[in-house]
Amino acid sequence: xxxxxxxxxxRWVVLVLMIAGFVLAGIFIPxxxxxTVAPExxxxxxxxxxxxxxxxxxxxxxxxxxxxxxxxxxxxxxxTNRSLKKSAQTDLVPRGIGNVMETLLEVLYNxxxxxxxSKYARMIFPWFATIMIYVLLANLLKLIPGFESIxxxxxxxxxxxxxxxxxxxxGFRWDLLTPDKVExxxxxxxxxxxxxxxxxxxxxxxxxxxxxMIQVIGFRAQRFGYFSKFFNTRRMFKVxxxxxxxxxxGLLELISxxxxxxxxxxxxxxxxxxxxxxxxxxxxxxxxxxxxxxMLYLFELFVGLIQAFVFGMLTMVFMAQAxxxxxxxxxxxx
Amino acid sequence: xxxxxxxxxxYIGAGLAMxxxxxxxxxxxxxVQGALxxxxxxxxxxxxxxxxxILGIAFSEAIAIYCLAIAFLILLKIx
Lengths: 334, 79
Known about the structure:
The complex is a heterodimer of chains A (334) and B (79). With 334 residues, chain A is mainly alpha-helical. Chain A contains eight helices and seven strands; from the N terminus they run αββαααβββββαααα. Chain B is mainly alpha-helical. The chains are: A mainly alpha (334), B mainly alpha (79).
């Protein structure tokens, strides 16, 4: 065997990167980023003003990331389409990116079929796969270096940091934030890019879409029988006491639908938000030991993957539950 | 004086916020225990159980992460 010729050169790359991180962190000392729950505004003036109930529309720093996510999704879709078309013309064997996407979608479809009947799996699958791929891309895009660290420098209202001029490039003046803290007259950074999933609007919108479509799919599967889950009058006249109790329990189901929206929203948002805080605090407190922050990055990769999976999976499971009649199994149990 | 009381309050609050992580620890432990028992009884279900176990762990862990986020929000004076 040719075991000797195998050179593990990749580990040297990792070592060089570790040393480079250590040296760079000594030159450009990490500054604690301004952590805010709401996305920061890149331009102080609103872009345009919507009519009365909505109010002004600001260019916040999650919008560029959102557009970037769309562009990347579009590019992936275009190349997948081209690759599949090419393989359909030749020998029907998908290659390259077409193969990867086909494998991914096949795994997801099998997962859908394992919990929903195959009749409804075709209805549920697009929502599940779309939400999952979208959230996955949004979560992973957050990890690219440059996110949360390059941006516009604003004058700080409270405590801020001193800046050092680096020079002009591309017609703009570039400054570096130094770790010297000042009480007044300092500046803070509003990054150009901030992960989309670290914006409550994004997670809330996805949660509303998901929960609304759960109701729609439940209605399409069971017609008006679906609403007997919420307004349960089935046993009201036969056994008044337990019938009334069933009715109250059914009303509680309505509240649990609302709770689904809230839990969807905050699960994704807080997981991603905690990621920002963890990396920032590790980089700020440990300074030169960038290896800890890199390990947290690895953990963030895992969390982003798992959360995208959980968001899609929960949507799929709730949709599959909605297609199955709630009443039938209830009467079977008695 | 007043500032140090506020500081003490902030530290105590962050500590109290992390109590919730105990529940998440119990939850993760229980789900792993259940999955391991199932795997030991029936090793063929390994792959299926592992996926569901990780899913369950992610749910429990989310609770701990809420606590962590709140604790950091209190510590770093973001509220």
